[in-house]
Amino acid sequence: MSGLRFVFAALAAFAFGSATAGADIKLPDYQTVQLDNGATLLLTQRKDVPMVAATVLVRGGALADPAGKEGTADLLAEMLSKGAGSRDALAFAQAVDGAGGNLDFGSSSEALTANAQFLSKDTGLMLSLLADALLRPAMAPAEFDKLRKRAIDGIATAKDSDPRRLIGLYASGWLFRGHPYGRPAGGDETSLATITLDDLQAFRRQQMGGDRLIISIAGDFDPAAVIAQVKQAFGGWAKAEGALPQVAAKTKESGRRVLLVDKPGATQTYFSLGNVGSQRSDPARAAQDLVQTAFGGRFTSMLNTELRVKSGLTYGASALLPRPRQPGAAQITSFTKTDSTKAAIDLAIATLDRLHKDGLDAATLQSARNYIAGQFAPGMETAPQLASAIAWLVLYGDGRDYIDGYLGQVATATPAQVAAARAVFPASPDLVIVAIGDAAKIRTVMQGYGPVTEMKLTDPRFSP
């Protein structure tokens, strides 16, 4: 279920030449066409392969879920491919597979999403399938019942077998309690059970429409033909009836608080330490990324070196720094054996303290610059990556310098800027902590980190 994944939109674009620590990646030119109903069409020519890719975004997403019905957007996104137009679910899948194409639907906090890739000769089919799914989904009751049951069962399975899939949901719910970012995008067992097919239909009317639509197409295609096809397929889509969700920024927490999620008999403890972090528009993005990379963003990071390589307390430790529209979470996450819970959390906190006290030396900083440059380019080479990058730029209202100037900012971030950027990760006295484990064995340990609130892993929600 897509809601179980802490989904973030990744930067992606087409790379002209190789990337080094001082060389920027430049987006190619693209054409913007505004339809009369408010839809935006973005066209990028790339003739090297006879393929065409599309990313489609419909503004709104999980943040628009009605209160108590979290998971509505996620279920709706999955329903879009379960039959549309004149095709039932099987016929729709056969139309995609028969053309050798790929077509996937999903949801994020701010948009319903579709990603497609077809041979150039099937561009018309791709657009037709997208239009059917978005404007004329079958919304068959039997398909809805199966999807909802699968979503609920997926949560139960994760709780039983692999709580690592859930630690982010508990961490977000605890840090952002009472805030929209604390609501589970994929729903929980309580909210999913209340969602009906009528709720999905109401969401479609309120949160889907031509004025919310962004279509980004990249590859080998005839621009004039595509413009005509898109206008024919989507130009008559009426505006959404509701308003876009608005989210206020949450301020950083002061002091500590702990959530202990009890899983009796657990042999491991999964933990998160965090606070409010960064946002999409943060001008210190490049410097923060250097800090995140060195601190917890790669195998040789400070956290992974201390908790895995040197001490053997875990198989992995990382620092996460997602950037939604408003500030998201800055988090340390890891897991360890039950009897080493205190040692692992203490070492994670000590490593955080060392980051704030000592910072990054010149060699580590240069290594982080090189790592970012090396990782940035391979994710920016294909038509699907290009279509996605441009679509998300438009959704967030970013200029092209968000990508074009990024590696230059990484290369030129000064030591003083990087030192200041360490503040994106919380000081250790101000940690919001979550632990999933055997409460009978780790309760006293967790009480040592701050006031503890307890809930059971079997509770049908992700926050107390």
TrEMBL record:
Protein keywords: Signal
Annotated SUPFAM superfamilies: LuxS/MPP-like metallohydrolase (SSF63411)
InterPro entries assigned to the protein according to its UniProt record, in alphabetical order: Metalloenz_LuxS/M16, MPP/UQCRC_Complex, Pept_M16_N, Peptidase_M16_C
Domain Peptidase M16 C-terminal stretches: 194-370
Top-level taxon: Bacteria
Domain Peptidase M16 N-terminal stretches: 47-162
Region forming the signal peptide: 1-21
Keyword Signal attached: yes
Single GO MF annotation: metal ion binding
Keyword Signal: yes
Name of the protein described by the UniProt record: Insulinase family protein
